[in-house]
Specification:
With 344 residues, the protein is an alpha+beta fold. The chain has 2 domains: 173 residues, Beta-Lactamase; 143 residues, Alpha-Beta Plaits. The chain contains 10 helices and 10 strands. β4 and β5 form a beta hairpin. α7 runs antiparallel to α8 and α8 packs across α9. It holds the Pfam family GGDEF.
Length: 344
């Protein structure tokens, strides 16, 4: 089960607030404004109950039930006094006992106050986040009600709120994109061989493992080729390790060019290379192509050494029980048989 990151949660919340803002902008009925506000309080903040007091050309008192439905209320409501004190500046905004929160907008010369309650204490520690969320909802609600009642200053208020939320959404989207880019770069570093630029062992088994499972489901042809660079130790001893590294890079280049773009090619470590190919050609054809490419490279490139590899290939049985690692080991064994045959 995928767990949302704090940034993803914040982005989702901002999108939801933008949706509420758009709906409030399109509404011309007080009942619709209150219904939207109640739904947002319950769905976005998880509240079980709330009381709203708005003082603008008179006083309006509205209660919201567990489903966010607005209900008529008056001074007899048990939360009226704490909400009225908060609105008048006589009561402090804040969380009361972890289950009730009061707030007002604007902070100075407030015109509306909201008291919100939950069935349990703030166990998830999101009190500050809920306060910001409810403050935004209350501000949007007051702006929408002000539009209906006075038909003035709505565009400036809501446009400002909308722009702030849009800026926040863009900032969070940019941050998520930056984090994704960093994660992609870290993943690439973790799965790439530094010397040759091919997949490393981890990258091979991740990428080839996915292709292997897909091939098996489709009952398609595939093969594993294991190759070992010849005479690397002699080159290191006689020409130095820099020349040995160059030999490995040359062998990697030829090995990569011998396969298609969809094939997975890797350096397992040292002088060992491996490839998983979906090529329909027979094994001897694949090996012949590799040797032809090596001969062509040695003829065209001037090097103080000759690039040569010993290779073994094993066809994968789509109906068999063996896994990818088993075929890599079998191809390794075939490579050693080929190397011994060539030496003798």
């Amino acid at each position: 089960m995928m767990i949302k990151t704090a940034q993803a949660y914040e982005l989702e919340r901002m999108h939801a607030l933008l949706g509420v803002s758009r709906e409030l902008l399109q509404t011309d009925e007080v009942a619709d404004v209150l219904a939207l506000a109640g739904r947002a309080i319950v769905e976005l903040a998880g509240a079980q109950e709330a009381l709203l007091i708005v003082r603008c050309n008179g006083e309006r008192v509205v209660a919201f039930d567990r489903r966010g439905r607005p209900l008529r209320a008056d001074t007899s409501h048990p939360w009226y006094r704490i909400a009225a004190d908060t609105l008048g500046g006589h009561g402090r905004q804040g969380t009361r006992g972890g289950r009730t929160m009061t707030l007002r907008v604007p902070a100075a010369n407030a015109v509306a106050a909201l008291a919100v309650g939950w069935d349990c204490d703030d166990a998830d520690g999101r009190g500050s986040e809920r306060r910001r969320l409810l403050t935004t909802i209350l501000g949007l609600t007051v702006a929408a009600l002000g539009k209906i009642q006075t038909r003035s200053s709505l565009e400036e208020l809501v446009a400002s709120q909308h722009e702030q939320m849009a800026d926040s959404v863009r900032a969070h989207a940019s941050e998520l994109a930056r984090r994704d880019a960093i994660e992609d770069e870290m993943r690439l570093v973790a799965t790439t061989d530094v010397l040759t630029g091919l997949n490393n062992r981890r990258g091979f088994f991740v990428e080839a493992g996915q292709a292997f499972r897909l091939v098996r489901r489709r009952r398609a042809h595939s093969a594993v080729i294991f190759a070992d660079v010849d005479n690397l130790k002699q080159v290191n001893d006689s020409l130095g390790h820099e020349a040995g590294d160059n030999l490995l890079c040359d062998a990697a280049s030829v090995f990569r060019e011998s396969f298609r773009g969809a094939d997975v090619v890797a350096r397992l470590g040292g002088d060992e290379f491996v490839a998983f190919t979906l090529d329909d050609a027979q094994p001897n054809v694949i090996l012949s192509r590799l040797q032809d490419n090596l001969r062509a490279f040695n003829l065209m490139q001037e090097r103080p050494y000759r690039v040569s590899v010993s290779a073994g290939i094993v066809e994968c049985d789509p109906d068999g029980e063996r896994g990818l690692r088993d075929y890599v080991l079998l191809a390794d064994q075939q490579m050693y048989l080929e190397k011994r045959r060539r030496l003798h």
